[in-house]
Write a structure and sequence with these properties.
2 copies of one chain form a homodimer. Chain A has 10 helices and no strands. Chain A is mainly alpha-helical. In chain A, helix 4 packs across helix 5 and helix 9 packs antiparallel against helix 10. Chain A binds a DNA duplex through helix 1 and helix 3.
DNA sequence: ATTATCTATAGATCTATAGATAATGC
DNA sequence: ATTATCTATAGATCTATAGATAATGC
């Protein structure tokens, strides 16, 4: 059942989008090629016409997810020109973000998986992380450029760690406390 | 080949220890029962005499790993009575810790896996996290008890996030920068 | 506790085909 | 417009792996 080039490109797109969400929700190993194809309304066999392997898809889906995150952060920052940092914090450390990993940050959802992945995937993560830190560095108050950079890197760690831990203990009081404490401490550090 | 109760208990112990290291190194799904048993010098089939399921082992190994972490943190803190917080930071944010996940923090190695696990495992993680935050709260400078608690929770997020990200981008310059920035910012915040 | 075995799953490959695209001819 | 070719997909299948169970032995 042949399909136009346009349709095929659209199918490829759908596969990458479905994978982007399912990987974040279930981990790289927690979802299979067949289920990703089903989510994209296609059959298992067609997969290898689009991708060399599952790992190939992992890398491509990760790249797209992180590129979208950078675009989203930029939009958030531009929408709040007088308090860009506060806008990023509120957005990132929300219960809504915690409760829907499939639509959220790739680093908080897949940091461990990335650490155990091959070089191609890890490089995708490194190249996806840099722009987010850049955006943070431009939004964060600080004496010097070096100080803002350092604060941005540390803030990124706090954001990812807080979300990761809030999810790991989801359902317990500690989960909300984690988001709130990280939010307050980061906001306070920015005022110094 | 039947074995005394004492030997059996020792075998069980070895399985839990092997699992504790292998899970942290490879993730809950990244290592199989057969390989864990091999690491404990036992055969695959014997596993189900000790544990109801793999998930049962996951929960038990997680509990032990985290209990040991709390004991280790207490030892570190007691060995540096005038700068306990600095001692914890230096220990946690070292390249050595980053480069050997199998012997390191369960939250930085398995936070994502825990978030995707069942309630039993997530409860184990919540109960393992609380003591670490307590130790941090007692080591960290701060005006009030509430302020120290809040700082401790946020610091825990920074530690776990920095290590997770440093591993996700391992091999790139950003990896070292992540550890150093988190270290400097946390130490600076404690001086305020 | 060992050894053998069962069953389900998942990544990957193979084959046939519908139908799109390219080449040909008027 | 016709004919030939190409290719994305479906569906079936292969192979390896992993959790779990059963049979056996001491």
């Amino acid at each position: 059942m042949r399909v136009s080039r346009e349709k095929a490109a659209e199918h490829r797109d759908r596969i990458i989008d479905a994978a982007g969400a399912l990987f974040r929700a279930k981990g790289f190993g927690g979802i299979g090629v067949a289920d990703i194809m089903k989510a994209a309304d296609l059959t298992h066999g067609g997969f290898y016409g689009h991708f060399a392997s599952k790992e190939d898809l992992v890398a491509q889906a990760s790249r797209r997810t992180m590129a979208r995150a950078a675009a989203n952060w930029t939009k958030l920052v531009e929408a709040a020109p007088d308090s860009p940092y506060a806008a990023l914090l509120a957005h990132y450390l929300s219960p809504k973000h915690r409760d829907d990993p499939g639509k959220g940050c790739a680093f908080a959802a897949l940091g461990n998986d990335a650490a155990r992945s091959g070089k191609v995937v890890r490089k995708a993560f490194a190249e996806g992380l840099a722009p987010l830190i850049e955006i943070l560095a431009q939004s964060i108050p600080g004496k010097s450029k070096a100080a803002r950079r350092r604060k941005a890197v540390a803030a990124m760690a706090t954001l990812v760690g807080a979300l990761t831990l809030a999810r790991a203990v989801e359902g317990m009081p500690l989960s909300d406390e984690m988001l709130e404490a990280a939010h307050r401490e980061l906001a306070a550090a920015a005022r110094v």
